[in-house]
Amino acid sequence: MKNSVVTFQEAKNKKEKITMLTAYDYSTAKLMDEAGVNAVLVGDSLGMVILGYEDTISVTMEDMIHHSKGVANGCKNALVIADMPFLSYQTSVYDAVVNAGRLLKEGRAGAVKLEGGREVAEQVKAIVNASIPVMGHLGLTPQSINAFGGFKVQGKSEKAAKKLLEDAMALEEAGAFAIVLECVPEALARLITDKISIPTIGIGAGAGCDGQVLVYQDMLGMFSDFTPKFVKRFGNVGDEMKKAFAAYQKEVREESFPAKEHCYQIDDDVIAKLY
After folding, report:
1. Nearest Cα to 19, choosing from 68, 82, 75, 78?
2. Cβ pair 154, 164 in contact under 8 A
3. CA separation for the pair 25, 71 (Å, rounded)
4. For a 10 Å CB count at each end of the chain, is N or C smaller?
């Protein structure tokens, strides 16, 4: 069944959990789609796990469009959501709508995600009015990492918790179809989930959210530069990849690969005539 903003809302209404993972290329997205994941997020996390940056700040619209196209080609049933990169929507409502439109037209995404609460509500409303579905993102918003002073849990004080709740309500009112809650205390995330009518997708926000999202390189043990507390490894693909790479290198050097079964043959008479 094709996933959409409608099926997201139906899942919340039925209290069915929503699953989302990041992907940045066709082959990975296709595997996730075939596994039945509800949504695939083309995250600006590609800045770190694909491009090797220290954060997401340097990711461009061109980066996002390029990777979104590949992911969209791999997804038949999963909803493809593309992140709006830093300064693609904060500068003006006009920029926000134009860039969101590019992610749908050129990147072939089905929805966009942007970070922030009340301060971007006007942009969210305008994008939604342009018939583009918007997912919000609150809590630890990586594009604000310089303002936060690092990757830290958000909403722990009464003032900060109240702001997160009010921001979630503002995003709902502006027309967002769902909200990612990142690095938010479990009890607060559960409260927000209960207070708003649209789905919440947690990442480091506990099991009380309506769904969960992880960066696939984290959950498969492929990215070890930094491992957040909320990550669970569902496989050790990184280790298996390194073993395979090492085995390949060894066999090439020993000349045991390629073997005869990996080679194409030609009639000896043809070769003899070439000498």
Report:
1. 78
2. yes
3. 5
4. C
